[in-house]
Amino acid sequence: MLPDADAAITRDGKALILAYDHGIEHGPVDFEPNPETADPERVFDLATHDAVTALAVGKGVAEAYYPSYADDVSLLAKLNGTSNLWMGEPDSAVNWSVEYAAELGADAIGFTLYGGSNNEVEMAEEFRDAQEAARDHDMGVVMWSYPRGQGLKNDTDPGTIAYAARLGLELGADIAKVKYPGSPEAIGEAARMAGPTKVVMSGGSKTDDRAFLETVAGAIDGGAKGLAVGRNVFQRENPKEILDALEAVIFEEASVDEALKLTSASAVAND
Amino acid sequence: MLPDADAAITRDGKALILAYDHGIEHGPVDFEPNPETADPERVFDLATHDAVTALAVGKGVAEAYYPSYADDVSLLAKLNGTSNLWMGEPDSAVNWSVEYAAELGADAIGFTLYGGSNNEVEMAEEFRDAQEAARDHDMGVVMWSYPRGQGLKNDTDPGTIAYAARLGLELGADIAKVKYPGSPEAIGEAARMAGPTKVVMSGGSKTDDRAFLETVAGAIDGGAKGLAVGRNVFQRENPKEILDALEAVIFEEASVDEALKLTSASAVAND
Amino acid sequence: MLPDADAAITRDGKALILAYDHGIEHGPVDFEPNPETADPERVFDLATHDAVTALAVGKGVAEAYYPSYADDVSLLAKLNGTSNLWMGEPDSAVNWSVEYAAELGADAIGFTLYGGSNNEVEMAEEFRDAQEAARDHDMGVVMWSYPRGQGLKNDTDPGTIAYAARLGLELGADIAKVKYPGSPEAIGEAARMAGPTKVVMSGGSKTDDRAFLETVAGAIDGGAKGLAVGRNVFQRENPKEILDALEAVIFEEASVDEALKLTSASAVAND
Amino acid sequence: MLPDADAAITRDGKALILAYDHGIEHGPVDFEPNPETADPERVFDLATHDAVTALAVGKGVAEAYYPSYADDVSLLAKLNGTSNLWMGEPDSAVNWSVEYAAELGADAIGFTLYGGSNNEVEMAEEFRDAQEAARDHDMGVVMWSYPRGQGLKNDTDPGTIAYAARLGLELGADIAKVKYPGSPEAIGEAARMAGPTKVVMSGGSKTDDRAFLETVAGAIDGGAKGLAVGRNVFQRENPKEILDALEAVIFEEASVDEALKLTSASAVAND
Amino acid sequence: MLPDADAAITRDGKALILAYDHGIEHGPVDFEPNPETADPERVFDLATHDAVTALAVGKGVAEAYYPSYADDVSLLAKLNGTSNLWMGEPDSAVNWSVEYAAELGADAIGFTLYGGSNNEVEMAEEFRDAQEAARDHDMGVVMWSYPRGQGLKNDTDPGTIAYAARLGLELGADIAKVKYPGSPEAIGEAARMAGPTKVVMSGGSKTDDRAFLETVAGAIDGGAKGLAVGRNVFQRENPKEILDALEAVIFEEASVDEALKLTSASAVAND
Prior knowledge:
5 copies of one chain form a homopentamer.
Chain A: E1 15-19, H1 22-25, H2 40-47, E2 54-57, H3 59-69, E3 75-78, E4 80-81, E5 93-94, H4 98-103, E6 108-113, H5 120-136, E7 140-145, H6 158-171, E8 175-178, H7 184-194, E9 198-202, H8 209-222, E10 226-229, H9 231-234, H10 239-251, H11 256-260, H12 264-270
Parallel strand pairs in A: 1-2, 1-10, 2-3, 3-6, 6-7, 7-8, 8-9, 9-10
Antiparallel strand pairs in A: 4-5
Protein name (chains A, B, C, D, E): fructose-bisphosphate aldolase
Pfam family, one (chains A, B, C, D, E): DeoC
Family (chains A, B, C, D, E): Belongs to the DeoC/FbaB aldolase family.
């Protein structure tokens, strides 16, 4: 963790990362609820929203779309990922070199580590190479710290999530993305364990506006420094509204009730 | 996917790739229906047909024949491949470095990825190296995206093919070659998932002229950007005629009936 | 073992290494007895104590805190380590390159070798690379020589510890950190086997002041050249006092009774 | 396959390779029928015979003897090989780098590929590196194309040998050395499948003069471009005579009867 | 095998290698018969004896002691070795790079190959790298050629030892160290199979003076070019006497009876 290394993908020390690696990790099934979401352009457009501090995508998507958005979007190069056709112990192919990410103009790198997998040691060493190369290119480092695999019975257990967050600090991540461990207290403890490494919660699968915003607000109150979100934004019919609301909750210390006014019901009223 | 990176192996945004890697993948048995087809020179001659936008061959064949055809054929260097003597989980040896392919004058590289194989992670990382090296040499990238191996029950299932096509986009291919998923709608959906990455259908084993052309025409109408074909062309007695017909269907928006006039029956009449 | 290579992390030929890699090796559970100990800053402060000849931490912690302590703390870069979520044969990921450790200003490297593990050969070769790179950067080398894994029934058996210490010498460590083998004679024999490589005992889990100091004093008398300690210092309420006492025992030839006067009871009296 | 790349180890487009890698592949047992044959000098002397277009040996033998024969012998550096103490799936260690072979003055490289072995993919990738390095040094490439291992029931089946020969072409060998598939027709078919890659038959274990020469003559008539032979030459009492006869059959279109006149019976008469 | 490459570690074409890698291979148990033998300095002193043509030690020991003996001892850098805590198939970690050995002033390298182990192929490729790097630094190469592992029933069988010696020649060793195969004839046959590669016998475990000297003298008569010895020298009370005797037998063609006069009984008489 290098102070200020993540400046290009944070705002006031917090982060709202729009994650769009579902095409590799889950495949087209994630786009079915809203077929337009298969189009990366739609998500790049969303990423120009002021609330979004970085957009996480894979190499091929970045090659095709990022050049047109370089002025308006901060690029978080998600280096590794694997299709869910994979049947082995949790693992993730490194699909993108740091050097090429830098060449394309990435502001930071993202990297998944499956602690507890039989591939943990190999993945940690791949992370080492990526993290140190990122330093050479003055890029921040975000770890998707997801304990998973043989021996992990519950991957959102508070103790496991606290360990996951601490691994982010120990191994050199500036930001650690962890699963939500079920309570503001638990993610707060994870944040305390990560020290200066910022902890952001994963958005998870789509929920309703209030439930989602309350979870995020609680996490921020508890000590989390933001959110990394995909489906809970891009699968919505009015994704910009939820971004408005998230911006209020994460960066402007708004209450959930205030933030909810920025979503559809009140939006209609304001028109 | 880098816009225009595949310009040297496409025409009007579409591709007709003549594939001739059967000598390594299947061995001499594929040449038995027409023994002359074992001779690469015959296939290089076919590749000079205007309809063909690229010829995909392995290193040894390219070394021996490509220098004589460099002015008339676009070379798609098929980097990996393995004999069917191999009994392990699907895998493919990288038989050709990108650097040497560039030295021989290749216009693009071709690379097989067996998503779902226990070797998927390793193959994806080999693809990464090849894809990025291709960028250094301004070469386009074609992925043979073929989910296969442990856990794959049906490798032409529409959902699987759509995922295969999307992997092409996500991992940085300019063109994704996929198996035909059984209907124009299904390959159209795959094409939509691949976004700017062009989807081309595999020709598969030899069928009769009308059936073959109707499948291709349907795929093009559905959204596919072309065809990668081997046996369905080179095993025919009059392979140039089927190329004439394919050219009409793929590049000239001809109907199947119009295209069929370019094949033997009518050809005889026209002589 | 290169004479004087460890000068930056020893004092009068002896070492008191404060080890703080628990966040990766054991996770937050090690901070529970004293929640403040999760904060690396607290441990860096402790490491400014005159008694401490080096502080062993991982890359991420060093990135965040070492720059502020570079004048007052000698940095021992603990290069490898793995979470205890790992269920495989003992292994340790190399999380930090020697080059980057040198860039951050490290004075020496630390490296775990699990002799007897099915990963011993691979770990020894990783140690080779690290040890030789350390020589290029004029850094000392400390081996955590911990026989462990298939076939090891008792990892504190005197014969095993003597072998562990000798491996330190043979493979090129300047200091070998070994588990305490149960008696001053046994650690003395380990020290004799290590020859010019200094043997330091591991502090192990927390014990009371007298028991701890007597073990350390006995080890020093037996021939050990110091101590590498974590929980037995940082989990205490008054860690500076135990450092005062350890300094007396290790560097000043004080008796345990004299040293104990520097801890709480007498400290209170001195106030 | 690069036209003319094998010029230094062929004569009139044909090859007679004297192979002497038995010391590694089989061990001293192959020298027992004629103990003098253990002495490499004896075989280097044989290799000065006009009939021999190249001598295939391993690195250690080349280091010791080739400098004295560099003017009279063409060196085929056999890069890989493994003792028959090996009990695993067929594999072959790469014992010699192309760079060092070039430094010692080698004219070409030889490389074994066990198609069908569980090590096929790895061996093919090692072959790639060697083949491309050979091109950098203007050396020809000979593949010992020997399908073997799990799943191969009959390694001299005509179809298998034809596939083996084709793999030579596809992967970039200038010459493919294959087992004799039992008939002139079968080796002719293999030669046709290899196209411009020259197919040479393996000499196999020692047989009598007439049987051996008839097999070779038939293979040449069938389309093979020569022979790679070891025991069938060096185990004979008068190995130069059989080389005279082979030269007649391979390079001078002599009949077997004519060639046989050059061996012992008539040789005695001519003295 | 490169003529004269071993000149720095031989004398009149013969070698007496003092081997002291027991600390890694067997551990402290080998020093128990004579506890002083744990001290490398004692062995370096022995190595200054005229009889000793090279001292084989590991990296750590060389770092610590060789600089003081560089004028009087020829250093044979034993590159690989593994503790006997290892429970897997025979393998040996490469603990020392050739480059660093050269930097420390080594005259030659030593490398163990376990032919027949499931790790044979990997070890042979590591040997290749080491052997070729040694050539770059003008260092001789000694192979500890020890068939071992799955499938080896008797690792001192004459045929196995002859094969082991031949592998030394084939793979590029200047000297092959083999187990004593039980008779002067058998080691002579091994020497004949190794051709110009010198065969030296391993000293094995400690035996009495006459038995040991008779075995060595027989081996030399049979064709061996010397001895690599550890325990049979350094475990003795008067190791210099046995070196006197070995010098007589190996380099001065003395009889065993003459040589025995140089050991204790007569030494006492001569005082």
